[in-house]
Q: What sequence folds into this?
């Protein structure tokens, strides 16, 4: 995996450079960061945990910045933000984060700061993806929703697999979900475009 996984972000960088009209340098940086993160994860997760935590936070920060042009103040509609699906999603994500943190905390109780960094950056990234998805101003925004779900799954299962109970089945699922998440995240930049009134009419009528 140390030698294979780096090929994934490299391939996605090539796709981004080839098909995106305006290159996002923060996206490119995010792919390079996740490449390094994967290498250190498979070398020794526990030994390099604090460094990995910083890399993960940097990855999410770069992803968020790369999505900034898809966010507008006019999208902040209280009615949408407090809709039942959003509230339920927030509650489920909060419960997931709390449960996983409580489960693995005894293994890394001296690295509470690193856990906090990962949780804050993860929740921020997922929040941005869900916000763009619920705003529904761009085609293929569902790709961001899928990427966010894959991210939650990967981070939760990775913590359990590396710090609580290791199994190759989990490792396989983690890698499949991570590759899928990165692919859909990349595909959003390649395929998305603003929704027009005509396309909205076509979708709903």
A:
């Amino acid at each position: 995996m140390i030698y294979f996984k780096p090929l994934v972000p490299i391939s996605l960088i090539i796709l981004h450079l080839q098909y995106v009209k305006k290159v996002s340098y923060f996206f490119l940086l995010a792919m390079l960061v996740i490449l390094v993160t994967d290498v250190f994860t498979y070398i020794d997760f526990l030994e390099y945990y604090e460094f990995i935590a910083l890399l993960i936070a940097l990855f999410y920060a770069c992803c968020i910045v790369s999505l900034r042009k898809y966010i507008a103040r006019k999208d902040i509609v209280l009615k949408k933000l407090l809709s039942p699906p959003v509230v339920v999603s927030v509650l489920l994500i909060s419960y997931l984060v709390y449960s996983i943190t409580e489960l693995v905390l005894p293994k890394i109780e001296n690295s509470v700061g690193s856990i906090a960094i990962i949780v804050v950056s993860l929740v921020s990234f997922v929040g941005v993806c869900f916000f763009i998805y619920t705003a529904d101003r761009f085609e293929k925004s569902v790709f961001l929703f899928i990427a966010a779900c894959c991210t939650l799954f990967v981070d939760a299962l990775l913590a359990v697999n590396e710090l609580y109970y290791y199994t190759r089945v989990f490792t396989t699922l983690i890698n499949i979900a991570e590759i899928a998440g990165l692919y859909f995240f990349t595909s959003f930049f390649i395929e998305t475009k603003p929704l027009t009134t005509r396309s909205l009419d076509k979708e709903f009528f």
The radius of gyration is 18 Å. The longest helix spans residues 112-135. Residues 154 and 173 are 8 Å apart (CA to CA). The chain has a mean pLDDT of 85.
